[in-house]
Amino acid sequence: MPDLLREVLATPGLIWLILTISVAGVVRGFTGFGTALIFVPVAGIFLPPTMVIAIMTLTGVASNAALLPRAWGKADRREVGTLALAAVVTVPLGLWLISVVDREVIRWIVSFVAAVTLVVVIAGWRYTGRLALPGLLGIGALSGLIGGLTGLTGPVVIMFYLASQSTAQSVRANTILFLASLDVVIVINLAFGDTLGWEVALLAAVLSVPYFITSLIGQALFDPSHERAYRVAAYGVIALALVSGLPIWN
């Protein structure tokens, strides 16, 4: 174990990883999402994609422990369950695609989808009805596919909720519950491969400490009466992820 710990402490960019996951924790606690959007682009500079996804989902356990108790009672558990059920089917496909699809192509597709959706949401479009079962299954399936492929588990469902008539409190609770479910699905799938080694698990444990603490700080900052500030913060996080994820920075 001491040798393994020394390897973890020698991880390239460890300080940057700790700082980034700390900022991501504050954002996740406040908005209910944002961890992957902030952490994945930075972690990808230092770590291979499958390791980034594994660490992202394992550290999610820390924020889930901090945020789930409050979110559970406020979330629409039936709707979130439908989204998660669809994601279960497509996560394995996303993880498999990592090995066969060129990463640059994937990044351009994700950037395009995120840009179009962000423009639509900021423009003020709102879905006034309630999605039927096929629509919910489609959103959940796409979330699982992109989550398994990139580690960005939240963007699709986040875009869906931000474009809805739901209140900030409801959006936050539903998103927290869905992302927690998706983390479990991805971890189970990774467990059948060779990605979840002791080094990955220990690095995730190290990063989970600041992540848990800053998630609580972010949760304390959340105030449902500041819905406008909530949406502005959410848009800012998505835009930041979009810009930082563009392949032009290679």
Automatic annotation (TrEMBL):
It comes from the Bacteria. Keywords: Cell membrane, Membrane, Transmembrane, Transmembrane helix, Transport. The keyword Membrane applies. One of its GO terms (cellular component) is plasma membrane. InterPro entries: TM_pro_TauE-like, TSUP. It is found in: Cell membrane. Its main location: membrane. It is a multi-pass membrane protein. The chain crosses the membrane at residues 14-40, 46-68, 80-99, 105-125, 137-163, 175-193, 200-222, 228-249. Pfam families: TauE. Belongs to the 4-toluene sulfonate uptake permease (TSUP) (TC 2.A.102) family. This is Probable membrane transporter protein. It comes from Roseovarius faecimaris. The lineage of its organism: Bacteria, Pseudomonadati, Pseudomonadota, Alphaproteobacteria, Rhodobacterales.
